[in-house]
Amino acid sequence: MPSGDQRDSNPGQCMAKPTEPDANATSMDLYGELHDSLVECPFTQNMFLPLNILQDVISVENIVRTPPFSGDNDLAEEVVHTAKKVLASLILVGRQNAIVDLLSEGLTDEKLPLYRRGSGADRNLLTDCDGNQTFETFRNWERVDIDNFVERQQWRTQAPVFDTSGSHFILDRNSALPLQAAVEKIGTTEFSNVFKCGLYRSHYQQDSQLLAKQVHVAIKELDDRNIFEREKENLTKTLNLNNRHLVKHIATCERGSNYYVIFPLADGGSLLDYWKRENEKPRKLELILWSLRQMHGLAGAVYSLHHDLGAGIHCRHGDLKPANILLFEEDSDPFLVIADLGVSRIHEQQTNLRRGGTTTTATTRSYEAPEASEPGQQNQPRARTYDIWSLGCVFLEFAIWLLYDYDAIENFEENRKLPPENPNASFFQINIDRKATILPEVLDAIKALREDPRCQGGTSLESLVNLIADKLLVTSAEDRCKAEQLRDELQEIVQKAKHDLSYLLNPTDQPAPVHKVFLKASKTW
């Protein structure tokens, strides 16, 4: 959990360098500049030196006039190219003169961090991070300096550098994450907390246009190793799927019993946030077309999860809902992304061949498919068409938002809760014969959309509602359409709309009265 310190830090600012000082003054200034630039990680509470500051301070120009360089430009060049972190650590300990002997022993930044070889007589004998080489220079150091170097100062330079490979980092208890101090909690789930935080640019080697434009990231913090391992495994398997509508993580980290997943920040929040925030946005044709394009993209992402992970590997997301669909607001092309793969089920046998039942339970009841609740089916293996039902629920709400507003979505949810047997606002009900049927309120909503004059006349929205009603919200998992068919039919709708904008919506000056299923239940109609 981050500390309560909310102070912002400026990762790129360094103190002015003195002009032509004497050697001792320059050494003290280097120490002061490094020390004063240390930043506290808000998650580990350990101090670290941002890489860009290290590079600015440990330069040939700055160090060549200080002991032990004394104008030796070649030695200064060697340190800057191979041992910046080593020298910075030594300066913070007050032992910078040892750099000459340590360089002669072959110590470079790549061999950090160093560890004690043992205790007793070997306490001052340090080995490299692989345990392959020892460094005799440390043997004659005072214990206080050894402790300071091994347990504190060398770790100031060891904050990891991330890239787009989704690497996993196992952090020492003395390590820090390269994050700025200002932290904002932006979400909570049953198993995690999610924070918005600044990532130092110098600690991210990006080749992604999305991440090149930002320094903020989302940090998911978990304390359950099993849940973390499942999410890490799922994210690693899906990282190479070439689909912009699937979330891609930056890195995973573990430090003791704390676990972290680092994601690019969805600056637009979730789809649910978007509906609320843009509730008053005019429903222009461009907005309807964008919405249809996003639904097509999400369907394609689900197809990728279901089919593109490799031969013999099968996956279903298992918890598709507006809160798990994120909006990345690119300058001219915002797009939706499916997130929260932690509850996804990825396995290496087809569902109908697996003997074991479903073990994924961390799902949202409102968007669950009927097979999750039908007597005798709860613990049975679930087909991938489970996700198709959930998409049907989301797309129906999307259509309601486009034609009405977010209040209609909320009222629709509350009206689904009115039957006492449906407190979770599911889209289906279990009848007395123990079979699932579509909830009457859902049928009313579909009927209201179909009868709205703006939908009628062969519009894109009419095609969308028909697709939802006839092929997505189907209680039998076997009879629901597959992800490929859904993707292809939505593509047809989008392509037709691109070529003929009049297909999107039937303009009318007299929209139909709002159906009671979209109004508050207590209202008198």
From TrEMBL:
Bias-annotated ranges (Low complexity): 354-365
Disordered: region residues: 1-25, 350-381
Record's keyword terms, sorted: Kinase, Transferase
Domain of life of the native organism: Eukaryota
GO MF annotations, alphabetized: ATP binding; protein serine/threonine kinase activity
Record has Kinase as a keyword: yes
InterPro entries the UniProt entry points to: Kinase-like_dom_sf, Prot_kinase_dom, Ser/Thr_kinase_AS
Domain (Protein kinase): residue spans on this chain: 180-494
PANTHER family: INHIBITOR OF NUCLEAR FACTOR KAPPA-B KINASE EPSILON SUBUNIT HOMOLOG 1-RELATED, SERINE/THREONINE-PROTEIN KINASE SBK1
Full protein name: Kinase-like protein
Highest classification ranks of the organism: Eukaryota, Fungi, Dikarya, Ascomycota, Pezizomycotina
